[in-house]
Amino acid sequence: MKGLPLLIPVLFMAFIALGLAQPKTVAVGLVFSIAILWGIHRGTKVEWEDVGLDIEEKYIVLAFWAAIAIIIIQILNFRSIPLINPAIRTSLNPQLTALTYFLGVPSSVYLFLRGKKYSLIYPIAVTLYAYRTPVLVSLLAVGAAYYEETRESGRLKVLHISVLVVGLLVLGLGMTFLRGETAAGLLTRVQSSTSVLDIIVWRAGWKGLYHGYLQWTGISSYIIGGYSPRGLVAKFLYVHNGVTITPTLLGGMYLDFGVFAILEGFLLGLYYGLIQKAIHPVTKALYYSTLAYGIVGVETGILDLPVYLLFAMGAYIVIHGWKAAKREGSGVAE
Predict the structure, then answer these.
(1) What sections of the protein cross the membrane (predicted)?
(2) Which of 304, 283, 325 lies closest to 53, judged by CA?
């Protein structure tokens, strides 16, 4: 299962190029992308034993249906569907919505890997929230799982991949139109996100501004409220009317640590280089889920508690497996 994590640095550079980034931003982005690539390369060289997590499948099935139930409960509470009435989506409970993502994405991928076709209910159900990101993440995670699993077994079908790509485009554009936006507005969004990164790179200084606080708010805002990471980005840009702004994959890290964001890029690549060798179904589900969040995070950044938790679970499995492999290599018994 090698290759797909390389999409993240490639797509990031394509994104800021399409957004007409300033030369300094392009230079910093290029070094950041190279750090991710180097991390992926180093990760593939490390041996570890994938023992997954000791979770019975019945609990994963329960998590899946809990995610679906949360979606239904929130919609029944409003007596309206955000996809049809986008104005109400900002009133969704953020904690419940986050729980939907945390439970729904990896459980649906796991069940898909186990051949359970009803797992595809989740990406359909989550479209009702009228947010593009969870829909794209869900479809990309399932699509990546299908691509790599069928490619390895020799059962890859071009028709199925084509249907997935078309489905992504239809859902993405369809939700855009339902929210009153236009296709041209998507290019404007790319350029505006890149402009935000330009400002961050020019104004944050070489050692950053928030020194980790921005990314920490991705945890604290879900627990005790207050500024969210994207809210802090808006504050940095002197926008104070409740607006949140996406800073791209690099933006949040750079606003925290400046040029030292390159180290975070390396660690991100190292994680993907390691976990892409997963063989346990639970670990595979976490790999595909975090891979999808990384790809979508090219624009949105990786700044949310549910995503942090998925990365933490994947990292725990990898570190535990590395220690196990090291013990076996040294001949030390458990």
Answers:
(1) 6-38, 59-76, 96-113, 120-146, 158-178, 254-274, 286-319
(2) 283
Cα 215 to Cα 41: distance, rounded to the nearest angstrom: 26
Domain count, the chain: 1
In a domain? residue 60: yes
* Tens-digit pLDDT profile for residues 6-60: 999 999 999 999 999 999 999 999 999 999 999 999 999 999 999 999 899 999 9
Does this model's pTM top 0.85?
yes
Q: How far apart are CA 310 and CA 71, in angstroms?
A: 20
C-alpha to C-alpha distance for 303 and 25, rounded to whole angstroms: 20
Residue 102 CA to residue 135 CA, distance in Å, equals: 13
Residue 116 lies in a domain: yes
Does 316 map to a domain? Answer: yes
Q: For residue 334, tell me if it sits in a domain.
A: no
For residue 60, give its domain range.
Answer: 4-328
> Is the distance from CB of 283 to CB of 314 less than 8 angstroms?
yes
Confidence band, pLDDT 50/70/90 cuts, at residue 184: low
